[in-house]
Amino acid sequence: MTRPDLSKTSAPAPGAGTPVLEVDDLHVEFRTRSGVVNAVNGVSYTLAAGETLAILGESGSGKSVSAQAIMGILDSPPAVITGGGIFFEGKDLLTQPAEEQRKVRGPGISMIFQDALSSLNPVYSVGFQIGEMFRAHRGTSRKEAKKKAVELMDRVRIPGAAARVDDYPHQFSGGMRQRVMIAMAIALDPRVLIADEPTTALDVTVQAQVMDLLKDLQRDTGMGLVLITHDLGVVNEVADEVAVMYAGKIVERGTVDDVFTDAAHPYTDGLMSSIPQLEAKGGRLTPIVGQPPNLAAIPSGCPFHPRCSRRRIGAEAAPGRDCAADVPPLRLVVPGREAACHYSEEVLGV
Amino acid sequence: MSDDSDGSTGATAASLPTTAAGETLLEVRDLRKHFPLTQGIVFRRTIGHVRAVDGVNLTLRRKETVGLVGESGCGKSTVSKLLVALEKPTSGSILYKGRDVAKMSGRALKAYRREVQIIFQDPYASLNPRMTVGDIVAEGWAVHADVAPRKGRLQRTQELLDRVGLNPDYVNRYPHQFSGGQRQRIGIARALALRPEIIVCDEPVSALDVSVQAQVVNLLEDLQDEFGLSYLFIAHDLSVVRHISDRVAVMYLGSIVEEGTDEQVYASPSHPYTQALLSSVPLHEPALRGQKDRILLQGDVPSPADPPSGCRFRTRCWKAQDVCAVEPPALVDRGQGHPSACHFAEARRVVPLEEGR
Amino acid sequence: MTDQQQADLRHDEMEAGTTTGLASPSVDVTDARQNSLWSDAWGHLRRNPLFWIGAVLGLVFLLVAVFPQVFARGADPRSCSLSNSQQAPSADHWFGFDQQGCDYLANVVYGARNSLLIGLLAVLVVLVLGVVVGAVSGFYGGLTDTVLSRLTDVFYAVPFVLGAIVVLQSGVIGRGVVAVAIALAAFGWMTAMRLVRSQVIAVKSGDYVAAARAMGASNGRILVRHILPNAVAPVLVYTTITIGVLIAAEATLTFLGVGLQRPAISWGLQIDAGQSLLRTAPHLVLFPSIVLTLTVMAFIMMGDALRDALDPRQRG
């Protein structure tokens, strides 16, 4: 596997440094009894230090699967990475031996999950579990590890950290458990943090606290943050760049300001107009018709075309741009913006 | 359907704010539900109570949608279970067309259960995996045989499926063959089958994908117009609640802290909790980013087994004073035009004004 | 959203393609007929070869049990000649002779009736006791559950065989086939009860049960339509395996002198008697063991097929 050509990847985010994580044309499929499910079909993105990239998608879009592939925690079988590369600081993780990969995952890239309760072991104290990171990766002594655990719990703003270090996960509330998870994830100062729906299970008031914490930690450490979510509001308030996923592919990518103000892909556009506003009652909602796609039988051509109001098929379509037959590539539509739609210019009105 | 009801309750509700004029169908007065906390297996002893619902007042009129918002553990789901008589209230009353549901039994309770239906949050758990869609939708008729004559039930089932946007040919399919949004439509068809007056919607769109949520919200709105339904819409998503509701009640730790029309509650919230809640909702318009009033609450919701004295919210409130620990604030209009359960209620715009799409 | 839903959503994300099949719906035109779980299950069973193998095997053994004379090739299991003792199988006597010099094929064939009767009868009692006690205990909960669960524990505390010995020794219900079956079932139903009880408790908190209750459905309807169909699968599998255990347990009782006694004929008796001659005449253990295994396999295959048929998610 060679290094991907950087020129074709997205425009750098404001204030972006050198890329720390590059995903190049990643393919993941699930080989199940009843057939092959194409969960991720060619996903590419780069993440610079200090940058926040949001991966926005609904269930079945492949957003979580791609993150699991990066972390090497796919259930395989049935999952198989069938192509592409995952480059951390220039080195392809997928071509390295398992031992090397383990050295990256944890100190280099770490991840937090949506369900903090099931991600923590109920029979060990949270302090022990945070300290485990130091003992396992750095061979720190028990006493020293505990001291570091208290420091970290302080850093993620768990009140009374010194007193709570010996408490067990069930003694914490949902928001506090998520903080414990974050403490474990940042323990070894990773360069990249992948947050998979970190606040979905939390209430909005607690969500606001946790997102605030993540943003502050990122500012302090300069790590890159990949935020996987289905919540457009969270993306808008936290991320610099956004990649919208549908049926295992990125269908639109650009800065959050651009994409959310004026979408270039009909799917993004549909999402924006289907959610009600908080600041006004608004009229009737405009939903996207139909159901999310079946990943075992992804529609031909553009995977979104059966639900798309702008699709052009057969005689209506421009040559080579038939939505039902020709797969639209992710292409640069206007500077800083890529979209996988044959008619993005029309959607944008440029 | 019986349109005529005991009109005596209409007067008591007249003082509450309203936009939709209709007779009062449901009136909840000082509703409480305390679950005992027990210890021991053979000899259980009660060591305390979880005050899941602790003094809720609500009024629901015909063809009206009342939104009930609150965070997890505030007791909103227990309210829904009390309303459909799945739980018995500890005290207080639920008056349906003037009659107390807790005192109903036999025929009256059965009739109530026909007229008040529920839609659940989880489209995966709320349908029996071993029943066909047709059986699920038609089950109500097996219990309430008078609603639909035995002959022609299949046709009516198919009409209902068609009405909620599903292919009528799917009657013989099983729930697992459908996606989340479609399953939720099956749940709606099941509720509709009994031609109810009221549907309690317990987080009906929370488990659905964003693109599908709007479909279900629109469907619920259409059905309301077509069948003259009244909804109690329980959710934690404040945007959805605003969109669908005529009136909104905000719940915190077992009781309602603020109530009013959607405009009153969202544009001029006067209870600190409502303000904090609204402030925490992330907005999806880049133009509005950073325009919100930032109120970051500290700490977690106290345990409903041991709620704070006086005002429930005082432990997290920036306005709290000595009086708050002593005197529980009543839910009354404090000069804001709508009721607020705060001693220091004061309208404050938290959410920025609409910019238009 | 609760954790459970999140898990489901994630699960859905993985399985989205494999289960929904909605992108290309194959519309089956309704023929003015409403399918039910049972009719669909039968339709599925009919297409399951495993079920047919099991059913044919089971039917053969059933015929053997009812009309042993047809299958014994004219031999009488009780006309024996010691001169033939322990003779190996031959063209005329397929299963050879036992220690008494009786035709062993005839013995095995005539043993089917007692063994099957004991196995089926005992398993039926286990199933009924297990499902009824488990369902009532799990569904009603509270004091009912406490009393029934403790009662089950009492039975658990008595070793299976010891309990059966006490019952049979007391002579209250005699020493015949029915008595042995009841004695075995009386101390073998507890696991089935536990299985049903835990399933019922898991299922009854489901939203669809709440939906039925909110609709005004009676307890009976909820149990029969919603809870039991979703709770019986594990116990079905368990009981099909138990048939073999029960038939074999009958042999243990015989060995201890409280089960069926000669001149009664059963596979248990034969395996038991053959054990001591394993080295000189292995066929005495081999043949009854083979038919016992085949019988158990027949029921396991049918039970497995039935479980799959009753779970719409397992169907193609």
From TrEMBL, chain A:
**InterPro entries annotated for this entry?**
AAA+_ATPase (IPR003593), ABC_Ni/Peptide_Import (IPR050388), ABC_transporter-like_ATP-bd (IPR003439), ABC_transporter-like_CS (IPR017871), Oligopep_ABC_C (IPR013563), P-loop_NTPase (IPR027417)
Which Gene Ontology terms cover its molecular function?
ATP binding; ATP hydrolysis activity
GO annotations under biological process? peptide transport
Domain (ABC transporter) ranges: 21-272
Q: Which GO terms describe its cellular component?
A: plasma membrane
Question: Do you know which PROSITE patterns this protein is assigned to?
Answer: ABC_TRANSPORTER_1, ABC_TRANSPORTER_2
Its domain of life?
Bacteria
| Chief place of localization | membrane
CDD domains, per database record = ABC_NikE_OppD_transporters (cd03257)
Keyword annotations: ATP-binding, Cell membrane, Membrane, Nucleotide-binding, Transport
Membrane topology (UniProt): Peripheral membrane protein
Q: In its keyword annotation, does this UniProt entry include Nucleus?
A: no
Q: Where in the cell is it found?
A: Cell membrane
Per the record, the similarity remark reads:
Belongs to the ABC transporter superfamily.
Task: Spell out the protein name for this chain.
Answer: ABC transporter ATP-binding protein
What lineage does UniProt assign to this protein's organism?
A: Bacteria, Bacillati, Actinomycetota, Actinomycetes, Geodermatophilales
TrEMBL record, chain B:
Q: Which Gene3D superfamilies match?
A: P-loop containing nucleotide triphosphate hydrolases (3.40.50.300)
InterPro entries of this UniProt entry? AAA+_ATPase, ABC_transp_ATP-bind, ABC_transporter-like_ATP-bd, ABC_transporter-like_CS, Oligopep_ABC_C, P-loop_NTPase
Keyword Translocase found: no
Q: Which domain of life is it from?
A: Bacteria
The cross-references to Pfam families, in alphabetical order and at most eight, read: ABC_tran, oligo_HPY
Presence of the UniProt keyword Isomerase in the record = no
Do you know which SUPFAM superfamilies this protein is assigned to?
P-loop containing nucleoside triphosphate hydrolases
Q: Which residues form the ABC transporter domain?
A: 26-278
GO terms under biological process: peptide transport; transmembrane transport
Gene Ontology terms, MF aspect: ATP binding; ATP hydrolysis activity
* Keywords for the protein's UniProt record, in alphabetical order: ATP-binding, Nucleotide-binding, Transport
The record's family statement is: Belongs to the ABC transporter superfamily.
The name under which this protein is listed is Dipeptide ABC transporter ATP-binding protein
From TrEMBL, chain C:
- One GO CC term on file: plasma membrane
Question: Which of UniProt's keywords are assigned here?
Answer: Cell membrane, Membrane, Transmembrane, Transmembrane helix, Transport
Q: Where is the ABC transmembrane type-1 domain?
A: 112-303
Biological-process GO terms, alphabetical: transmembrane transport
Instruction: Note down the stretches annotated as region Disordered.
Output: 1-26
UniProt keyword annotation of Kinase present:
no
UniProt record similarity statement: Belongs to the binding-protein-dependent transport system permease family.
Protein name (database record): ABC transporter permease
